[in-house]
UniProtKB/TrEMBL annotation:
Its main location: membrane. Gene3D superfamilies: ABC transporter involved in vitamin B12 uptake, BtuC (1.10.3470.10). SUPFAM superfamilies: ABC transporter involved in vitamin B12 uptake, BtuC. It is a multi-pass membrane protein. Keywords: Cell membrane, Membrane, Transmembrane, Transmembrane helix, Transport. The lineage of its organism: Archaea, Methanobacteriati, Methanobacteriota, Stenosarchaea group, Methanomicrobia. The chain crosses the membrane at residues 41-61, 101-122, 134-153, 159-180, 187-209, 229-249, 281-304, 316-334, 346-366. One of its GO terms (cellular component) is plasma membrane. Residues 1-29 are annotated as: Disordered. The keyword Methyltransferase does not apply. This is Cobalamin import system permease protein BtuC. GO terms for biological process: siderophore-iron import into cell. Pfam families: FecCD (PF01032).
Amino acid sequence: MKNPFKKGSDDTRVDAKENPQNKPESQSRADYQHYIGRKMLFMAIMIILLGLIGAFIVTIGPLDISVPDVYKILLSSLFPGNFATEGLPSQVVWNIRLPRIVAGIMAGFGLGICGCVMQAVLKNPLASPFTLGISAGANFGVAVAAVVGVGVIGGPYLLVGNAFLFAMLCALFIIALASFKGATSETLILAGIAINYLFGSLSDLFRYFATDEQLRVMVSWGMGDLSAFSWNNFLLLLVVFVICTPLLYMKANDLNIMAIGDENAKSLGIEANRVRMFSMLVASLLIATIVCFTGTIAFIGLVAPHMARMVIGSDHKYLFPASGLVGALVLISADATGMNILRPTMIPTGIMTSLLGVPFFMYLILKRKRKEFW
């Protein structure tokens, strides 16, 4: 006779199926998939917007070229002989508009990623690619080239070579100083402030003794502009991107762990100081390469990571590419606004990014209140 108080094997299987403890596991899996899907959707939307806005920007400019003519010019390279194109419009589209869009996407993406890295490394929401004096060093290199005429590279690359050299020297000096005194975020920030004041003062001293033509070159470069970029620079910038971007992305998990503190990260096998120095070195190389071709472009590296973080959170595996996409989108939009708002006068890109970045930065300050990002 079967005992009514003893569960058999069939009853056990039934109870296991009805056990509500199985639901949280499936629910957690679904929540995680939704969590990842939301991030991927945001990045997909950014890529689509970047393509659409880039396709629109190439059709506008100080020289009036109809939309069909612009796309005929672009298609003529893919299908030679099938589309008739004129001389001047073709030169404008291929050698002025398209390089500016490509430069804006690459520079914005690089500045966004580097801003994200520096905010994570320094654990400071106000950190940006220029916090450590890299921009001040590049400005000083341009001042030396413009006033003294001395540079590591002669000819048309005199300004570019000096800007890159002094930007990297500033970054290496800060990294060496931090390694000697201990690579804490506070040491890096204080060293960056000192370098900014030092090279800013030296640049002002060169401006004081510069002629009108030399001063014009220094001021024009310091405003930041994408017009200096050409197809001749594309390969070099692309090579640096291909090298630096994967190296930074490889440290995404380490930076996630470092967010809980250096000591806790060390207990998990992460050498925080080593990761901090490596990330700063690679980011500095990428920033110096961008700056030497575009000049000083402010606020992209500061606001792009915050804009991305507000949508997808602080997981650096997704925040890195999202910050880059937002930076590229903001930069090409600001550049297009500067090119067309007062046609035929073109406002430098660095001025437009500051004008557009300051209101959003103030919005972040007011919205943030006491909320912590780290």
